[in-house]
Design brief:
alpha/beta, Monooxygenase, ten-stranded parallel β-sheet, two-stranded parallel ribbon, 11 helices
Length: about 325
C-alpha cells in the first residue's frame, strides 16, 4: 500500500494555502524544511503578506534592503509598527508606485503628523484597496486625516482607530461631486452623531459600517438633511450612547435600507421598548432581516424591578417570532 505525503501535493495547492498565511509564518515553518517547499516560497506568483512589527530600526532597514526591495512585485499586504521612515519621501529606500501589488497597508502606532507626511506616497500605490491606521497622540484632529483618506483613489476599506483621547472631527457635510469609493468603514474611536453623518456624506457607496462608540449629540438632528447611501445594508454599533429618539431620526434619514443591524451596548432604556421597535421597523426598516440588540445591567444591591423590566417580555411577540428573532436574558450572580 502506498501513501501520499504532503510534499507530493501539486504546487498550485501549496500556493493557494500560502496565500492565506503571513510570510513571516511561512518562512519560519517551511524555509528550512526541504528544497521544494523552500523554492515555492520564492515562486513569482506567491502573494506575500509581510509583517514588520516590533523590531529594532537596524532590523527593519536590513529587511528592507535585503528582502523587501527584491520582492516588491510580490508584496500584497504590509504591516508596519512605528516604522514609517521606510515609506517616507525623505527616505532613500522608500515605497513607491513600483510596489504595484500592494493591496493592504496596516500602520500601527502612527503619530498624525507622520501619517500626513506619507500621504503622497499612498496616492501612488495603484492597488491600495485597504488601509488600517492606529493613531497615537494626546489630542488628535482627525479632520485632515479623514479628508486625505477620502482622496485615496482606489480605497475600498478603511479602519481608523485611536485611544480615547481628545478628538476633533470638523468635516462639513460633503456638497461636492467628488466622492470616495470606500465600501467598508470601521470607525474605532468615539464619534458624535453629527460627525458620523458628515463622514458618511463622503462615502455614498458604503455597504458596511462599524462604529466603536456613537456618542451623545447636543444638536437638533431634525435639521440635518437626509443623505443617500443606498447600498449601506450592514451596520454595527459597539456602543450606542445616543437617545432612541435621535437613533430613529438617524435611521430614517441615512440608512433605512439596512438588512443587518447590531447594537452591542446601549444606555437609553427606551431601546428596550419592544412595541416601539415593532412600529419603527414596520414603518422605516422594511428590509431588516437580522437584528441584534444587547443591554447589560450591573447591580451591586438587590435587584428592584422597574417599568421597563416588565416590558421585556414584549420582545417575544409574534412580530419577533415570525422573523426568527429570539429573546434571551442571562443573569450572572457571581459577578
Amino acid at each position: 500500500m502506498s501513501f501520499t505525503k504532503i510534499e507530493d501535493l501539486p504546487k498550485e495547492i501549496f500556493l493557494e494555502i500560502f496565500n492565506y498565511i503571513e510570510y513571516n509564518d511561512l518562512s519560519d515553518a517551511f524555509s528550512n524544511l526541504n528544497n521544494r517547499l523552500q523554492n515555492l516560497l520564492k515562486y513569482p506568483s506567491l502573494r506575500l503578506k509581510l509583517n514588520i512589527g516590533h523590531q529594532p530600526e537596524f532590523a527593519v532597514q536590513n529587511c528592507y534592503t535585503k528582502f523587501i526591495i527584491s520582492n516588491k512585485h510580490r508584496i500584497v499586504s504590509l504591516y508596519l509598527h512605528d516604522h514609517l521612515d521606510i515609506i517616507s519621501q525623505s527616505s532613500s529606500n522608500k515605497i513607491d508606485s513600483s510596489f504595484s501589488r500592494i493591496e493592504s497597508l496596516i500602520l500601527d502606532q502612527v503619530p498624525c503628523k507622520e501619517w500626513i507626511l506619507i500621504f503622497p506616497i499612498l496616492t501612488s500605490l495603484p492597488r491600495l484597496f485597504s488601509i488600517t491606521i492606529n493613531l497615537i497622540g494626546i489630542s488628535i484632529d482627525l479632520t485632515e486625516i479623514y479628508r486625505l483618506i477620502f482622496l485615496l483613489p482606489y480605497l475600498k476599506k478603511v479602519e481608523l482607530s485611536t485611544r480615547r483621547n481628545s478628538l476633533i472631527i470638523s468635516l462639513p457635510i460633503n456638497t461636492y461631486e467628488q466622492y470616495s469609493h470606500i465600501k467598508h468603514s470601521i470607525i474605532k474611536h468615539v464619534c458624535h452623531l453629527k460627525e458620523l453623518i458628515a463622514l458618511l456624506s463622503y462615502t455614498p457607496l458604503l455597504t458596511h459600517l462599524t462604529c466603536l462608540e456613537l456618542s451623545k449629540q447636543y444638536q437638533d438632528i431634525q435639521r440635518i438633511e437626509a443623505i443617500m447611501i443606498p447600498n449601506l445594508t450592514r451596520m454595527t454599533l459597539n456602543m450606542c450612547c445616543i437617545q432612541f429618539d435621535e437613533f430613529e431620526v438617524f435611521i430614517e434619514k441615512i440608512c433605512k435600507q439596512l438588512r443587518i443591524l447590531n447594537i452591542d451596548k446601549i444606555q437609553d432604556v427606551d431601546y428596550l421598548n419592544a412595541i416601539r421597535w415593532e412600529q419603527f421597523i414596520s414603518k422605516h426598516m422594511l428590509y431588516l432581516r437580522i437584528f441584534k440588540l444587547e443591554y447589560d445591567e450591573y447591580h451591586y444591591q438587590p435587584l428592584e424591578l422597574t417599568s421597563y423590566h416588565s416590558q421585556l417580555n414584549q420582545f417575544t411577540s409574534s412580530f419577533s417570532i415570525n422573523r426568527g428573532w429570539f429573546f434571551q436574558i442571562a443573569a450572572d450572580i457571581d459577578y
